[in-house]
Amino acid sequence: MTEQNHYDIIVIGSGPAGFTAAIYAARGGASCALFGGVAPGGQLLQTTEIENFPGFVAPVVGADLMQSMLKQAARLGTKVFQEDAASVDLSARPFKVTAGAGKVYTAGALIIATGAQARWLGMPSEQKFVGKGVSGCATCDGFFFRGKEVAVIGGGDSAVEDALFLTKFASKVYLVHRRDELRANFRLQEKVKATPKIEVLYDHTPEEFLGDDRLKALKVKNVKTGETRTLELPGVFVAIGHTPSTKLFEGKLQLDDEGYIVTDERTATSVPGVYAAGDVMDTRYKQAVVAAGAGCKAAMEALVFLQESGR
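Below the sequence we write its predicted structure tokens.
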């Protein structure tokens, strides 16, 4: 039997946005394929516990949630390819997607849900504790540090917003910044000054993450004096930005200055018939439930597009 190579809708990406888009596309009567990489699931594969995704009374492991979404999408008829999209041709319909193995697939509409990666410091000790005390998402994991001291690394708007958010749970928040002044906007800086729970460590950089199975402390270094200090705490949030996974679409879709795909309120991109959902276009929220909602919108818009333009 010859393998199908044309689909009404192709989804690139396999996080909450991608799987939700595939679920809605398939339920809407479209033939749908999803390219999810070798390990479909996106960033949530590295999340040990999720407490804020609706429908789960007890915390759910990120990998388990993604596996459930994968099975649901497949049950509804989505063809899930465990390989990456190597290239795309958006110059004309049907759009062409070349898989990593070299085979070309075509689609009447395309949904991009390739996500964004949290920027890490690149230290070996940091990577050892990712998901074990080191996080790139304060709103995802801050709840787990109720009554404890934590640190935020960074000095821009995102870092300061994370520090302010964490004061809802933590007993104290250290804001570790390598310069002698924050880069965040004036209003946020004023809020920090007015928040007793936040201590800003200016002119400091992370030196080493310490612990056994889980993070226990963060060693920081004063860049001017060379002196080091060890902060005994179980949680560190790295807030130095995100990098959207849009290299595949450079020169083919409109991107903003940071590389995020530009969409309208209906998730439509600069190319008719191409939609984007989730962290690849979301510069603010970075939440699984928000990504899933955007995936729903993208699929519904793609179905309307196919109906109006012909499959």
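The radius of gyration is 21 Å.
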